[in-house]
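Module 6 notes. Inverse folding takes a fixed backbone as the condition and produces residue identities as the prediction. Think of it as a translation problem where the source language is geometry and the target language is the twenty amino acids. Below is one complete input and output pair. Work through it position by position during the lab.
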C-alpha cells in the first residue's frame, strides 16, 4: 500500500520584516497563501527500520540535507517508531525559489507518516517539530490562508483569500534565503506594510484591494543581490499586480481572469523566461481540522 500526499507551493501576499531577533532570525508579519501547484509524495512501508528518499529531481540530495529525510527522522525519533519508510518525491515546484517547496515537502512528510505509521495527530508537538524543520513548515502543515508572526511559525488561520489565477516566473537561478535576510538593511525593517488592510481585503473577498496591498520587505535585498529579479518584476507589473514571493527569486502576478493571466504567460514564454500558471488553493489537506 502506498500513501499519497500533495505538497502545495505557497506565496506571501505580504511580508513585513520588523526586526532582527537575538537568535539570528528576523521577526516577521506575513500572510501565506497556498497555490494549486504542488509536489507529490508517496510513502510505502518497508520491512527494515530504514528511511529512504528518492526523487525525480536530479540535483536534489536525498540524505541528511533533504528536508523530507529530516522530517521523517524527527517524527520517527519523537514517537519511537521502529518501522521504516520508502518515500518517493515527485518535484514540480521550483527549488530555492521562494515558493516553500522544501518546507511543503517536509510538512507533507509529517502528514503522510502520521497516516502510514498510524500516529496520533497532536497539534502541539507537531507544530514544534515543524518549526524545527523550518520557519515555513508549520504553515505548510495546514495550508490555505494564514497570518504568520514570530519568525513565520506562529499562525492564525484567515478566511480563504479570494480566488486568483497566479502567474509565477523566475529568472531560472536559485536564491539562498539566509543570504537575502542577511542583506536586509535596518532602514528597510522600519518600513511598515498594510497587514491590517490586507486582512480586511481578504475578509471582504475583494480581489482589487488584495492586489493593491501586495508588499515584501525582502524585495529590496534580493534586487540588490540579483538585479534580474527587479527587471522581471517591472516587466510583470505592466500586466498586473506583481510582487516577489518570500526571499525570491520567483515573482508572482495575480489576475481575476484566466485570459489575462494567459497573455502574460505567453509573453514571458516568448522571452524564454521559466513561467508557471497556477491558482490560489484553499486548504485541502484536512478541511482545517489540523490547523496548528
Ligand atoms: O527557517 P528556515 O530554515 O527556512 O530559514 C532559513 C534561513 O533564513 C535562516 O537560517 C535565517 O538565516 C533566515 N531567516 C531569517 N528570519 C526568518 C526566517 C528565515 O533570518 N524569519
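Target side of the pair, the amino acids:
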Amino acid at each position: 500500500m502506498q500513501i499519497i500526499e500533495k505538497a502545495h507551493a505557497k506565496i506571501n501576499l505580504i511580508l513585513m520584516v520588523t526586526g532582527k531577533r537575538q537568535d539570528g532570525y528576523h521577526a516577521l508579519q506575513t500572510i501565506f497563501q497556498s497555490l494549486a501547484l504542488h509536489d507529490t509524495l508517496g510513502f510505502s512501508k518497508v520491512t527494515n527500520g530504514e528511511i529512504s528518499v528518492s526523487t525525480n529531481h536530479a540535483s536534489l540530495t536525498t540524505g541528511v540535507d533533504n528536508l523530507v529525510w529530516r522530517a521523517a527522522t524527527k517524527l520517527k525519533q519523537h514517537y519511537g517508531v521502529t518501522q521504516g519508510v520508502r518515500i518517493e518525491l515527485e518535484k514540480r515546484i521550483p527549488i530555492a525559489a521562494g515558493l516553500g517547496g522544501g518546507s511543503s515537502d517536509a510538512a507533507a512528510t509529517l502528514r503522510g507518516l502520521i497516516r502510514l505509521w498510524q500516529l496520533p495527530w497532536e497539534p502541539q508537538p507537531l507544530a514544534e517539530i515543524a518549526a524545527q524543520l523550518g520557519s515555513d513548515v508549520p504553515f505548510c502543515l495546514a495550508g490555505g490562508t494564514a497570518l504568520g508572526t514570530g519568525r513565520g511559525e506562529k499562525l492564525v488561520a484567515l478566511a480563504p483569500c479570494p480566488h486568483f489565477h497566479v502567474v509565477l516566473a523566475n529568472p531560472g537561478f536559485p536564491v539562498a534565503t539566509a543570504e537575502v535576510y542577511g542583506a536586509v538593511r535596518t532602514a528597510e525593517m522600519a518600513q511598515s506594510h498594510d497587514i491590517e488592510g490586507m486582512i480586511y481585503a481578504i475578509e471582504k473577498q475583494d480581489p482589487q484591494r488584495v492586489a493593491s496591498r501586495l508588499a515584501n520587505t525582502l524585495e529590496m535585498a534580493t534586487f540588490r543581490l540579483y538585479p534580474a529579479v527587479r527587471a522581471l518584476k517591472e516587466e510583470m507589473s505592466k500586466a498586473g499586480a506583481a510582487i516577489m514571493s518570500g526571499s525570491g527569486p520567483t515573482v508572482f502576478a495575480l489576475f481575476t481572469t484566466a485570459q489575462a493571466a494567459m497573455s502574460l504567460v505567453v509573453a514571458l514564454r516568448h522571452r524564454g523566461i521559466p513561467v508557471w500558471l497556477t491558482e490560489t488553493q484553499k486548504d485541502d489537506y484536512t478541511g482545517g481540522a489540523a490547523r496548528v
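Reference fact for the lab report: Residues 287-292 have pLDDT under 50 and may be disordered.
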